[in-house]
Amino acid sequence: MQPDPDHWLYRLDAASWLRAAASELAAGEANVSARRTAITHARRAAGMALNAALVLHAEATGDPQAAAQRWGRSYIDHLRALAEGDEAAAAPLPPQLRGEARALLEIPVLPPATSLVQLAAAPHAAARGALEIARHFFQACAALQPSDPTDPE
Q1: Left if phi > 0, otherwise alpha if psi is -120 to 50, otherwise beta: which for 62?
Q2: What predicted TM-score, i.e. pTM, was given to this entire model?
Q3: From 108, 113, 127, 137, which residue has the greatest number of CB atoms within 10 Å?
Q4: Cβ contact 56:18 at 8 Å
């Protein structure tokens, strides 16, 4: 499938969406001390990885229109569709990503308004947790790519 610069999903190929997701993960890691920023980057990274999965799904099924409509258009739409959908909605991704999508959406971007200190919580635990979930999405979506027969590994 050739990139279509006018289409929100097909303007990039799957590998390019994964590179964009990796850039979002790196930006999140660089901003882990800024909770809202890191969590937003994590959600965007997961969404961009899911865009790669949609492109690969379109290539596998030969139905680009259905793939583009499958999980909605935005990264939040993608995560909500997985979180609220059944296992068939997640396929070909592992079903546990449905729960991880829900968990990623439930992490508040702002810390709770309380004066209690979580003594057991590591600094920036929410941001790190969001980035870890986003890495799971990245890995699952990257695993969908067919191996390149010219790749020496």
Answers
A1: left
A2: 0.88
A3: 137
A4: no
Rounded Cα distance, 19 and 22, in Å: 5
Q: Please report the DSSP string for 63-75 in residue order.
A: -HHHHHHSS-SSH
* Average pLDDT over all residues of the chain: 89
Q: Is 120's pLDDT higher than 50? A: no
DSSP secondary structure letters along the chain: ----TTSTTTTS-HHHHHHHHHHHHHHHHHTTTSHHHHHHHHHHHHHHHHHHHHHHHHHHHT-HHHHHHSS-SSHHHHHHHHHHS-HHHHTTS-THHHHHHHHHHHS-SS--S-S---TTSPTTHHHHHHHHHHHHHHHHHHTTSPPPTT---
Q: Is the confidence at residue 36, as pLDDT, over 50?
A: yes
The answer, yes or no, to whether residue 149 has pLDDT greater than 80, is no
